[in-house]
Amino acid sequence: MSGQDKSRGGSEGPALARYIDHTLLKPDATADAIAGLCEEAMRYGFATVCVNPYWVADAHARLKSSEVGITTVVGFPLGASTTAVKATEAAAAIADGATEIDMVMNIGALKSGRPDEVGRDIAAVVAACAGRAPVKVILETGLLSDEEKIESCRLAQAAGAAFVKTSTGFGPGAATVEDIALMRRTVGPEMGVKASGGVRDLAAARSMIAAGATRIGASASVAIVSDAGGASGSGY
């Protein structure tokens, strides 16, 4: 998918589902839980499932004949892996069937005044994906000042990433309307912005989309779309 999701402009029920990466990144997730995630994604029409790299092949086996994509995470959740490891992880995930890559930015390098290294880290993952999968860069906004958020967005954009994303869901804080609006202003209209972390209901999803989000990462996806008029179900 491009940075600007084609569903933008309609946010209820099935159209809202196309904004959502249906997410299960818990360390104790089981094969049965991943299977259930994939079944829900097909049932409700979510954009992708988002799973840890180990589960990509399982998800691909279940989703390969569907329109649901597969997002996986790289350098997760700290962003402190070496660049070579991140690039290798991304390439391996694509070989297993991943269609989108959510990488964690090197937060410590940014805070150490090493923006060139941050940019090279992102660019290496983008190159490893070689046009086969868009890259979303997780900023972990709860650890950054507004100035650092702006700098991170600009570095991600310059490195060829397709999206900037708020949070891993494992760090401090959560997605906020203010951060989404700041990120959208910084990257302009063409790049994707993903709200992730703490988006658990329809009102929160609507507010993120209104602020400029073109994708939402959520584990409570079913609850969100059910409240929007989708089929009944319960979130995680």
Automatic annotation (TrEMBL):
<dbReference type="GO" id="GO:0004139">
    <property type="term" value="F:deoxyribose-phosphate aldolase activity"/>
</dbReference>
<dbReference type="GO" id="GO:0006018">
    <property type="term" value="P:2-deoxyribose 1-phosphate catabolic process"/>
</dbReference>
<feature type="active site" description="Proton donor/acceptor">
    <location>
        <position position="102"/>
    </location>
</feature>
<comment type="similarity">
    <text>Belongs to the DeoC/FbaB aldolase family. DeoC type 1 subfamily.</text>
</comment>
<keyword id="KW-0963">Cytoplasm</keyword>
<dbReference type="InterPro" id="IPR011343">
    <property type="entry name" value="DeoC"/>
</dbReference>
<comment type="pathway">
    <text>Carbohydrate degradation; 2-deoxy-D-ribose 1-phosphate degradation; D-glyceraldehyde 3-phosphate and acetaldehyde from 2-deoxy-alpha-D-ribose 1-phosphate: step 2/2.</text>
</comment>
<protein>
    <recommendedName>
        <fullName>Deoxyribose-phosphate aldolase</fullName>
        <ecNumber>4.1.2.4</ecNumber>
    </recommendedName>
</protein>
<dbReference type="InterPro" id="IPR028581">
    <property type="entry name" value="DeoC_typeI"/>
</dbReference>
<comment type="function">
    <text>Catalyzes a reversible aldol reaction between acetaldehyde and D-glyceraldehyde 3-phosphate to generate 2-deoxy-D-ribose 5-phosphate.</text>
</comment>
<dbReference type="GO" id="GO:0009264">
    <property type="term" value="P:deoxyribonucleotide catabolic process"/>
</dbReference>
<dbReference type="Pfam" id="PF01791">
    <property type="entry name" value="DeoC"/>
</dbReference>
<dbReference type="GO" id="GO:0005737">
    <property type="term" value="C:cytoplasm"/>
</dbReference>
<keyword id="KW-0456">Lyase</keyword>
<feature type="active site" description="Schiff-base intermediate with acetaldehyde">
    <location>
        <position position="165"/>
    </location>
</feature>
<dbReference type="InterPro" id="IPR002915">
    <property type="entry name" value="DeoC/FbaB/LacD_aldolase"/>
</dbReference>
<keyword id="KW-0704">Schiff base</keyword>
<dbReference type="GO" id="GO:0016052">
    <property type="term" value="P:carbohydrate catabolic process"/>
</dbReference>
<dbReference type="InterPro" id="IPR013785">
    <property type="entry name" value="Aldolase_TIM"/>
</dbReference>
<feature type="active site" description="Proton donor/acceptor">
    <location>
        <position position="194"/>
    </location>
</feature>
